[in-house]
Design a protein that fits this description.
This protein has 620 residues and is an alpha+beta fold. It has 3 domains: 151 residues, Periplasmic binding protein-like II (D-Maltodextrin-Binding Protein, domain 2); 128 residues, Dipeptide-binding Protein, domain 1 (Alpha-Beta Complex), CATH 3.90.76; 220 residues, Dipeptide-binding Protein, Domain 3 (Dipeptide-binding Protein, domain 3, Roll), CATH 3.10.105.10. The chain has 18 helices and 21 strands. A 6-stranded mixed beta sheet has the order 14-18-13-17-15-16. The chain is globular and about 80 Å long.
Length: 620
């Protein structure tokens, strides 16, 4: 492979990969009075017949008593900028989504969504489960009935309390077939397993029979499942409540209109348009939910990376080779760049194993040994943006075991030639179809390098074709009249990232088309291992079963793992707060998945430090 001119030096990589790991922690948050301004210089004596003494310099005014507070009365950290500078600016979209809540829509949300409620549960910066609107929860002995005790101190901005009724209305909206909610699988069988969820979605039973109801009082929420689901609370960081009253009166998009916005979260909508979305601190939020920030603003820019360089944005992402080079060649940007695990996304190749030649295991094995992951990471994505993947679960994800599985699909062209000869397959040309969104993450370059390797070593011509994401997924999931897969994608390139931090979320995607999975690899042993592990409460034994299942999947070579993404974010030095500090999994500075919002509490905890004016000269 020809080495690009932009290859990273060892010094550059050490510099970037060490970003934040040894940085200074935040100063103590004990409030202190701001320093008194310097006294003005003495003025010269006025001209007069007789000389007079110059007046004494004006004494500095006394420092104001007490710490700074923002408009909601929340005490700012001692190194915080004044309230008028407590504004976070991010990039918006020229065509914003219609909704502002994940419970209204997942794929049609606008910038600055999901800060108008308190989810049932949350995660902290280390992906650990912590209370949200539910202060505690318990499960019945049979593992099928969960009782969530809600906080009684959270009120909506119209002064009504957040109660179990709001969560019941939210779940009923998501399951109601009239809603057309775009993330129903999340609570369906095989994932959330909420009782009767699938049946309600299908219109077979009324929403009143959904397994979500109010308990013995307004602050007790009961959720029933159709099977034991020990990870259920982990799903509920997406359970952002919609207010029952506003939902009934204005529909699920009520938070997209400042006139109808009702919030119990840290912010409330002030302006919503294609050119600007602005939200302001919610004074009715509970004390621990109130933000340090006064405002958050999202405005569209033709190039967010350039806008960040021009100090017009507080946050941006690095997504292509030119931007990586710009970061590496700029000491200031290098200091602000922080790679993290994102949503533990893995990019991979796959085969329709029901069709020749991909129904031949040795042929698939041969292809698995022709992917040079190390070169792809070194020369294409750069180590800043990805790690080589030899299995599905990325490092840091529960049950991840990639290092132990590394040899199974290692790059070995000679072994590939041997396996190809043993397979008996004779083929001249293959079509490799890539989901179009991967182009934004070097997809074409990666697919072409793999195609070239197959051509060079096996003599098989491989055509690479990019297909728009919507069309690609429709084809991949297409079913015939008999319910069996009817896809035309025999050899594909795609990606997947987590929705919740449990092995079941990732591994069940590969459970097979006969059980609702996205691919045609239907392996009974794999399915049995997943079925056995899913309801287990013994974490150690559960992990062993999931690792056995992943090893089997890697050995079968129905999927050729390529890269684990490590997306790089740029954060201005004045963005501070506990969520910004290095953590156990993300060892660099910066807010991790799912970025700044209420799901991880970061929207309430970040603030603007008092060095902001060294960078940001104006607020849009």
């Amino acid at each position: 492979m020809k080495k690009p001119k932009t290859a990273l030096s060892r010094r550059q990589m050490l510099k970037l990969l060490g970003i934040g790991a040894g940085g200074a922690l935040l100063a103590a948050c004990t409030p202190a009075a701001p320093a008194a301004p310097a006294a003005p210089a003495a003025t010269e004596a006025p001209a007069a017949p007789a000389p007079t003494k110059a007046p004494k310099p004006t004494e500095a005014p006394a420092a104001p008593a007490g710490p700074m507070t923002n408009s909601t009365g929340k005490v700012l950290p001692e190194d915080a900028a004044p309230p008028e500078q407590q504004v976070y600016v991010t990039a918006g979209q020229g065509n914003p989504g219609q909704f502002m809540d994940i419970s209204a829509s997942v794929y049609n949300r606008a910038a600055l969504a999901d800060v108008y409620g308190v989810p049932l549960t949350r995660i902290n910066k280390d992906f650990e489960l912590v209370p949200g609107a539910a202060k505690e929860w318990k499960v019945s002995e049979d593992g099928l009935t969960w009782t969530f005790a809600l906080r009684n101190d959270i009120i909506w901005s119209d002064d009504t309390p957040l109660t179990a009724d709001d969560f019941v209305a939210t779940f009923r909206y998501m399951a109601d077939p009239k809603s057309g909610y775009d993330f129903t699988w999340y609570y369906s069988k095989g994932s959330g397993n909420i009782k009767n969820f699938d049946e309600v979605v299908a219109g077979q039973v009324p929403v009143e029979e959904l397994g979500v109801r109010k308990g013995n009082n307004d602050y007790e929420l009961i959720i029933e499942t159709s099977e034991v689901t020990p990870y259920l609370p982990r799903l509920f960081l997406f359970a952002m409540p919609l207010q029952a009253k506003a939902l009934a009166a204005h529909g699920p998009a009520y938070n997209s209109n400042p006139a109808t916005c009702v919030s119990c979260g840290p912010f409330i909508v002030k302006e919503f348009s294609p050119t600007r979305i602005e939200v302001v601190a919610n004074p009715k939020a509970a004390d621990d939910i109130k933000p340090f920030l006064e405002r958050m603003i999202a405005v569209p820019f033709p190039d967010a990376f350039q806008a960040y360089q021009a100090n017009q944005l507080d946050y941006a992402t690095v997504g292509n080779a030119a931007q990586v080079d710009a970061v590496l060649n700029d000491p200031q940007l290098s200091a602000q760049a922080t790679p993290d695990v994102g949503d533990f996304r893995t990019d991979y190749f796959f085969f329709d194993v029901t069709k020749p030649p991909f129904d031949n295991l040795k042929f698939r094995q041969a292809l698995s040994h022709l992917l040079d992951r190390d070169s792809i990471v070194k020369f294409i994505t750069k180590p800043l943006l990805a790690r080589p993947a030899y299995s599905f679960l990325a490092p840091g994800f529960p049950a991840a075991n990639g290092e132990a599985l590394k040899e199974i699909q290692r790059y070995d062209p000679e072994l590939a030639k041997q396996l190809y000869a043993e397979s008996g397959v004779k083929v001249d040309k293959l079509l490799l179809q890539m989901r179009g969104d991967l182009e934004g993450y070097f997809g074409k370059e990666i697919a072409q390098v793999y195609a070239d390797s197959i051509k060079q070593n096996l003599g098989i011509e491989v055509e690479v074709k990019s297909v728009p994401q919507k069309d690609y997924m429709a084809d991949l999931l297409k079913r015939g009249p008999d319910g069996k897969p009817d896809t035309t994608i025999d050899f594909g390139y795609i990606s997947y990232g987590m929705d919740y931090l449990d092995p079941s979320n990732m591994l069940t995607v590969m459970k097979g088309s006969d059980l609702g999975g996205r691919h045609t690899w239907n392996n009974k042993q794999y399915q049995e291992l997943l079925a056995k592990a899913g309801p287990m409460t013994n974490i150690e034994e559960r992990t062993k079963l999931y690792q056995q299942a992943e090893k089997l999947m890697v050995e079968e070579c129905a999927f050729i793992w390529c890269i684990h993404r490590t997306p790089v974010n740029l954060w201005k030095p004045y963005i501070k707060g506990v969520p910004m500090e290095p953590g156990k999994i993300n060892i660099n500075r910066g807010v991790a998945w799912p970025n700044i919002g209420a799901m991880n509490g970061s929207a309430s905890e970040i603030y603007i430090a008092n060095n902001v004016l060294e960078y940001r000269k104006s607020i849009p």
